[in-house]
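Worked Example 4.2. Consider the chain below.
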Amino acid sequence: MSGIFDDGTPERPRRVPPPGSQQRSRALIGTIIVLVVAFFLVSVFTGVWTDRLWFRSVGYSGVFTKVLGTKVLLFLVFGLTMGVVVAANVAVAYRFRPLFRPASQEQVNLDRYREVVDPLRKWLLIAIALVLGLFAGGSGAGQWRQFLLWRHRSPFGTTDPYFHKDVGFYVFDLPWLHYLVDFGLAVTVLSLIAAAVVHYLFGGIRLQSKRDRLSGAAQVQISVLAGLFVLIKGADYWLDRYNLTTDSGGLFTGVGYTDQNAVLPAKTILTFIAIICAILFFANVLRRTWLLPSVGLVLLVLSSILLGVIWPGIVQQFQVKPSEPDKEAPYIAANIKATRDAYDIAGTKVTEYDANQTLSQSQLRSDTESLPGIRLLDPALVSEAFEQLQQVRGYYSVAPVLDVDRYQVDGRTRDMVVAVRELDQNGLPDGQRNWANEHTVYTHGYGVVAAYGNQQDKNDNPVTGNDGKPVWAERDLPPKGDLTNMFPNGYQPRIYFGEKSTTYAIVGKAPGGKNVELDLPEGQGANSRTNTYEGQAGVPVGGLFNKLMYAIKFSEPNIVLSSRVNANSKILYDRAPRERVQKVAPWLTVDGDSYPAVVDGRVKWILDGYTTTDHYPNSEKDSLRSMTSDALSPNTTYATLPTDEINYMRNSVKAVVDAYDGSVKLYQWDDKDPILKAWEGAFPGIVEPKSKISPDLLAHMRYPEDMFKVQRNMLATYHVTNPKTFYGGTDQWKVPEDPENKANKQPPYRLSVRTPSGGPDPVFSLTSVFVPQKRQNLASFISVDADAGQKDYGTIRILRLPSNTQIPGPSQIANLFGADSDIQDKLLAFTRTNSTALFGNLLTLPVGDGLLYVQPLYTQRKTGEGRYPVLRYVLVSFGEKVGIGNTLTEALNDVLGLAPDAPSGADTGGTTGSGGTTGGGAVSSDVRQLLQQAETKFATAQKALQSGDLEGYAKAQGEARDLVQQAIAAANKATPTPSPSATPSPSGSSSPSPSASPSN
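Applying the procedure from the previous section yields the following structure tokens:
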């Protein structure tokens, strides 16, 4: 080791490496640098080129050009500004370095560094400018969203109550101005540091000298830079005044008493002190004394501590705290108003709902039309059943949580639990997992699988004897069923773009060649049908150059070498619907749930896009991830958000992705949203007007779940509009925990519900409930009208329960179900045979002036292959009464205390207070069935008359009269016989036309 530091001796001279060795080392280092730079440039070029081709293939080249052009512009402007300004200050400091340096130990020590730096100064200057420019340019390019919003800003038409500025100033202008100020501070600080280092290195600053420590040039340059820094800091103080409207951390987000009466004046005073301090620094250019600038700087620092920290603390402690409810009341009122406006919950309709805990049979009959349509299939549980019964092959799969949609079947609106049979290459045998199969053969899924949500058939008749399996509306390969029958030529069943399409596919057969894509697995070997993709989307990769680009992009040489990639080939990638929408509209936050619908003979993925910000003045901030997380989606992610915290949200765009050709359509939904208007100004023409949505597509659009989750999260607190009540926290609610997953919140469910303020007909709604803080009884029921085709779409309704009632909440109902002896006895037979019980979604709906809970109960084998949940029972609770049955009707009869074959809607004139009926009648159940059917037909006739359907009115009236005649005839017989025209339900009652449509 000593030889490393040995300078050599005459007896033992130091070894000097031969000149050739040094040249080889330099050549090697140079080669490595060139290779690294070349690799970086090729990677960047490949990414840009392939993105350009992808955007062109989907018809959104304008988005690519605008985003790339904006990024390049900002990169150059901010990068050049940083690099040039810092380099100029370094050059000025070197240019005006002292030509004569008095001898001192300090200067002698610096001589060795000057000897090293001086020959390389030009290269060092270029390197410093380049490095700082790259960092600054990257930072500037990252601000492209905020820059475009600022360039295309639009007024909100609403002003804040403190500064009286339009909300658009806070959303569009303030963030951009803050970035410019912060960038200016960074430039001056780095310039000041760089200039000081050069002056010190070359003798302009002499720290060990007793006098004249700074040369004249050094003093001028540092004074100017320091003055600029303090001046820009003054601008920062001024802008910080407006930031008070979005500061959080106290009782609420926004301006409070202390902010307005202490912090705001302090920021204003600090602004003027900073201006005075800057003037003193500029004056130092002429006066050449550091006394006044130093005094000004000390005054600024002390003022920032006294006025910015200590004084607000004193005001908060001694003025606000003793009478906080009164002091903060007007500021809380402003926060409540801004929050309700920002989250679009100001129009929430609250109804006092004095819920009964006992259910009368006549009350149940009045609401019975909404009951037979209640979904008994839980989309989160039946996924395994769909896979086991409709998967067909191991390489097909469905989503873990299915979707619910509505379709018109023979004139009835029916709920269907829907899944797309997507390709899942993880199901391929190991021997078939190779590049050719994974990317050229197994390229797409096939068909839609659907089941009726209420477990009734196409004619809405009960289905028995199917062992709890789903009642299929669409099934098998090739697909067949009620969805296929809706279209004369069926629908396009091939799924090239889906939620499980995570890898790229290369499609297109060679000229004159054979199809190689597996289409339908009808048999083995040659019996399997093949197909070739003929859609518009996809990037052509027939040419060598594009092959090379994608071989580099995906690190796969087979793209160049394989004969499967031919002159007609296209490459499909970024195939997940949410990923495609995020890519063509990178300014949108896309909902976590994309759901399929069969529209106009095509499978379409429908998604919701949001515009958000965290700069809406005085509106409450919260984490979007936290607000949208629940038992079904515990780990939501939003890649396009600059920040997870938001305080404004609008569902501004509805997006549609074609599952076959991958085309993306964006439709304007909220035409009043100023943020959407700004983005439409930045990207003109990419969002189509709402009028372009076809009626068939509109029928499948619904209120988005994530939007509703955010709104219910805010309404848990901001249903309160009285500041004093808000401050006291005596009326705060919360979303209950999911009874089957206590670590997460209960998800919202889709139901058709009848509400006191919603009219006589059930409304397709997205629903949830609230419980009081730190309690488990029910506080309220919340719903939003979710049918996009209705005029009341988006209306939020709350049924508020009286504070003195004790209606059980979801967790308490789950405990009732778990403790009920009848339920446990029925489950015992299954648990003894290697099965476990699975409780489905716990649905809540207003019925009979109360709240009814309905929960499907499944069983599943604990071990073995091919197992899936089977629907066994339906659980019902009203008040504290619990019922169980094989069907919903049987469970309702159990709650009412009726005989198992009694119709749940029969009116015996009694009420159930203890599980039974009081009173009775001599009318037989058969007569009641016929009369109930007649009543339903009369109601149908009335609806037909109101809609102008005279033919339907006459038909329904005739059928109703026939049923009345049958009832009279049956009543006159000694032993009544049910009419053959009556269609019994599993409990013996007829099944009226469904109108309840709960969904996930």
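The two ends are 73 Å apart (CA to CA). The first strand starts at residue 349 and ends at 352. Compare this with Example 4.1 before moving on.
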